[in-house]
Amino acid sequence: MKNIILVTLAAISLSVSAHTILGTQILKGSIKTKFDLNGVKTTCKIKVDKVKNLRLEDSYGNPAYNVRLEINLKGDDSERSISIRYDKDIWLNNLFTNGTRSEVRDFEYAGLDGTKMMIDRNGRIKSVTFTYVNRPITCSF
User: Which of 10, 56, 73, 78 is the one with CA 20 to 30 A from 25?
Assistant: First the structure.
């Protein structure tokens, strides 16, 4: 009888798996980088404006968060008369669907329009990918 109880408990513990997160908080503030976009020196500035609890939990009980980003691209090439301007405010969250379950991710955020943001273990932005003129643009920091 004792062995049956142990085997049953072992089977239950294997079937119940938790999705563990570190609970990394994203830092508020702004960050910028420079890169070439179609041969134009362009500045990409990202600002984390607001961080709010989404008031939803994933399938494992972890809280999800909404992050409001301000994305700004600026670049000029006066010789070729090219100007790059992009300003967008967007909400991203870290609640994702994985099969039939929902899961909160520590280092990844996504928006409804396909914008994605990755952060590091310290909560600093590593990269933001968004669509500009029907083309994915990645600003890496």
Answer: 73
